[in-house]
Amino acid sequence: MNIQAWQVILITLIAFIKAIDFYGTQILTFNSIIYGLLTGLVLGDPMTGLAVGGTIQLMSLGVAGLGGASVPDYQTAAIIATAISIASGKGTQVGLAVGVAVGMLGVQLDVIAKILNGFIARKSQAYANQHEFKKMLAILWICPVLIGLTAALPTFLSITWGVSAVNFVLNVMPAWFTSGLSIAGGLLPVIGVGMLLNYMPAKNTSALLFWDLCSPRT
Amino acid sequence: MNNTNIGKENPSAPQEPQEEKKMMLTKKDLRRCAIRWLMGVNTFNYEGQESSSVVFALAPALRKLYPNDDDYIKSLNNQYKYFNVTPPIGGLLLGAGLALEDKDRLKSLNAVQDLKVGLMGSMSGIGDTILWIMIPTIFGSIAGYMAQQGNPVGLLVWVLFTLAIFIWKLSFFDYGYRFGVRVITQLGQQLNIFTEGASILGLTVVGALISTVVTLKTGAVFQFGDVKMNVQTDILDKIFPALLPIAATWIVYKLLHKKVSMTWIILGIIVISMIGAATGIFAK
Q: How many domains does chain A have?
């Protein structure tokens, strides 16, 4: 299906608000499922959105940006992955691979926004010392706009250019590329699990692996 | 400092009435700070970290305390100093700081900064573990698994839970202001034990998910004369079905432990998957 202009605007807006909520109001922080679902609703396929969001949620378990660290933007990844899965009609694995890749790039934008925030903070303090108290507070509103753009820009670019680009690549690329993407989609959750293991005391690791041995596999 | 003098605005804690004039900030002022503090990490920069947001949140309250411009600027410059805390629980700390400042005004500035910097580490240790690791891990693993099956109930429960926290945290400035410094230091010690136990629970839940969440299968085939054996379906599935996912988990765990960047690991996984698909070592 083709994504309509109003759908592009709405999805970009979701991404914009997502980034501000992630750092500010923090109601849906680290919740990828809801963003998959919302994107799915806009595109008329909430079930795909729910499934893609759920998969990305499991991938991202244990990945938390603590102390101002920049981590892959899994929520934006969920938005893009859902949009591309539905729009390209090529299944969720392709959407997941593209979404996660763009989410990784989002980290660079996050760093840039935080550097720009540094200039704004200095300007704000300068206003304070010049007795310009209204300007001191008003200039800080630029910060959430910058943060919003770190998610909105990659989302806008990938859903306007990404779908046709992805379709083109998939039609041209050999089978090993696409099945490689599928395998990577199954394997990538390993990162979140690896992160979690790093938080755990070592003595629990062996118990965990034993549990794994006993669990049935389909 | 005498903490019994903090919290004059609260009717449930009646104290000596002559102190009432001294404490100026009302519950309404503190609620306003809490709402403005929702700016949170949006203003994050690598110098003052969350300091711009602190100024943004506290400015109306500080203006009330310092009608004189020069005093106001002194206090603001103090708040522009380095500060970083888990935003939702930061209100406790900033509220306690306001109580100090309300009591002693400019004389308290050093104490306010010491309080903020001294406690932000342990407060964030608690906040980050509960809010950003425990809750997303426990609710995320359940909700994510249910969502994959097309069931939104887990998601709904999670969103309602985080909404409740959102409403609750708007009172944190008030708590911090009323109970002052004492309660924060006590809370820190007690919650440490709780978070440790709870995070082990959360991680164990996820541990059980390795074999279902991580999928990796080999497509390799052994051939001895006429006997053909698929390594995955004929051998591994019968002896140790999750061997490959566990091996992958172990390798990634070790790489992360050695501080290899997540970007490289993800790129590596994609490249190795493609090589595996091309050579037939891995199968879909």
A: 1
